[in-house]
Amino acid sequence: MAATVFGAPATTNDTKAPPPRNFGIVMYDSYDLLDIAGSVEPLYLLSSRQRLNLSLIAETLDPVYMRPAPSENYTTGSHFQLSVNPTHTFADPPEDIDVLFVPGGGGERFGNITAAVDFIRATYPKVKHLITVCTGAGVAAQAGVLDGKRATTNKWAWKEITPTGRNVQWTSPARWVVDGNIWTASGVVAGVDLILEFIETFYGRELAHTIQGATEFKRTFDPCDDPFAAWHNVTPSGDCRLTPSIYGK
Amino acid sequence: MAATVFGAPATTNDTKAPPPRNFGIVMYDSYDLLDIAGSVEPLYLLSSRQRLNLSLIAETLDPVYMRPAPSENYTTGSHFQLSVNPTHTFADPPEDIDVLFVPGGGGERFGNITAAVDFIRATYPKVKHLITVCTGAGVAAQAGVLDGKRATTNKWAWKEITPTGRNVQWTSPARWVVDGNIWTASGVVAGVDLILEFIETFYGRELAHTIQGATEFKRTFDPCDDPFAAWHNVTPSGDCRLTPSIYGK
């Protein structure tokens, strides 16, 4: 057990580049809460040890909902809703975003995400890193910023999401993929593996290890360790083994 | 890999009891976002297949923050904040809560959680199930509702939390513990294992399996599979093997 949970590569991949400080999350109705929380939580723990700033950026400052209003009354009769408050708007975003974070969610399939897509297209050239989790890759793909890049997305939603980016080198199996400054995670919880790898890369292994222990997360260290590609019968494409070489492993 | 990720007990533990419908989350400033999201997300996916209702209950209807206001300006200079909107107050909660959910977070250590503790004490006798995740067990312990029960909490915070419930049978190692109608998870991500077990128990294995696949969560099926007890040097106590027998395994 210890070997798979606590195993780590033998070499460090800490970099000497100044670590990112300012994280901006692109919010839209029907975001996936766990996509967001899976990255916000480790970064929040990190923010007690490193200076980090978080912005939540949406079309307006109104609360953003897990589920778009028109479908709030499901066919099941459920009322299952949670809203988060943005801090900035797409029209007046924070300056100097280092890391633009795009969560997935139903919104990119049945909601209106035009404003979010436009914001990503306009903002990507100004940021140092782009992170997508789950079907957030489909939102980024619609903005065109994944064109020509290797990327991955939720294997459950693979057939629905990958056509949104016909010029993307979609990669599966892959728990996460890094291509240049674009980090894309597979479904939901794969985002926690991605963010711990991101933290290890830019803030060091010790902090990543401490945060893993605090959150009791059974981390995946190998980006090719993706059993959900087979689970969801995704046809293999691309090469997950290329991922670590991009950032110095 | 498949064996550990997808392995499941050979017998079903689905019950014939009517499944819980109404979930209420106890909110307080300095909640742990991932404790909440780790359960809300699987239940949200379930809510498209089953009628489920979610309430977020706090002292007031004002936004509730990840970090209490007085400490928002950390010593690191970080501004890392996220707020969620309650739907109900402790004074006017929803009727017929089936499942009361208590997340952890810094609040139970350095915030004012008196109102939350009082609400849990008054409400527990009316609900069908109590779930705590991470240091949420410390909040429930202060309400006295864990007295005489077996329970667990985050192994990282073990020495800080367990003294808040001197009459609790604290159990470690344990990924999660079930004692009667009280379900307690270890730290943060252990809550996802707990909620999938809860879903499997009350809504059936197929839905738990589907949700695991959608969230790409490498689930722990054995409540004794808790490497973080040793990671954090927690002295063994109680017996994690008692857990499954409580609800019919």
From TrEMBL, chains A, B:
InterPro entries: Class_I_gatase-like, DJ-1/PfpI, INH-QAR. It comes from the Eukaryota. Residues 71-200 form the DJ-1/PfpI domain. PANTHER family: ARAC-FAMILY TRANSCRIPTIONAL REGULATOR, THIJ_PFPI FAMILY PROTEIN (AFU_ORTHOLOGUE AFUA_5G14240). This is ThiJ/PfpI. The lineage of its organism: Eukaryota, Fungi, Dikarya, Ascomycota, Pezizomycotina.
